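Q: What does the assembled structure look like for these inputs?
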Amino acid sequence: MRWLAEVHVALRQGIADPEGQTIGSALRSLGYASVGDVRTGKLIRVPFEANDSASAEAIVSEMCQRLLANPVMETASWELRADEQQDADEAVPS
Amino acid sequence: MTMVTTRPRVAVVVFPGTWSERDFAHVAAEVLGWEHRLVWHLDTDLGACDAVVLPGGFAHGDHLRTGAIARFSPIMEAVSAFADAGGPVIGSCNGFQILTEAGLLPGALMRNDHLEFRCDWQWLRVEGPQSTPAWLGDLADGELIRLPVSHGEGRYVADPATLDELEATGRVVLRYADATGALTEEANPNGSERSIAGIVNAAGNVLGLMPHPERAAEIEVGGTDGLRLFRSLERWLQQRPASAERRL
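A:
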């Protein structure tokens, strides 16, 4: 069956995020004075095939370790759900 | 007794989006008189070579992270094997980013702290060049050299333990400095931790640096300090014991 993983890649604590800082100061300059430490990240949506939720979890975890996040400066977390709505035409050819 | 000298042979790896390979090739062929070969990233064989160059650019569009996709290119297995066998490898700019993603060097390169692309001449302080005789053998400890930088993602980061270990083992070999050699915040073009501009692996044969030595190899372009890295390599190759030659 098909699954959809929404992978969130975030910068590790202690890693400076100049883009987040710039966004934060832009928000403050717009009048949102209470805005604190803004952090940026990435959202990566990955549709894929797996037999069951356990193997789907294992596959996403491996994808994160091998490619999606660099443990030197990033952490990855994800939400996984069955992708029943996936249109057949959108499916990645195997 | 005559010393047998042959022209160094350098393999320059080209990924989709690499942009400095022609500069390296020009310097190799026209300035140094070396043999060179451009090797496409889908190749699996570097061919007979004495050194490998991973040039600057934007391999695979820098998508996901700089160097993140390039590290999986087929040629990288050959590059790793060459490095593991002690072969001299240099990664400049995007090449440095690829070396860190591939795990051949520790740490990572991130967006410059000021978020701007920085293209300028930069003073660098040489530290412990004996850590990498192949690449910095001709340079002196504490010496200042001037090379161009040209990057948007050159901020070197690593966890404090890794940084401490790199420093303790003499593997930080180039730092951003001002014209007097001082490591100031203003002289640091990208916010790199501890002003790190270049590091080597434990064996000393793999050098990663953000600056571009190939763009400072002729007086017409503003400086020749980059040439000194390549002359170091040339001398190192000539002095290498014959038994070690041609087996890489």
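The radius of gyration of chain B is 17 Å.
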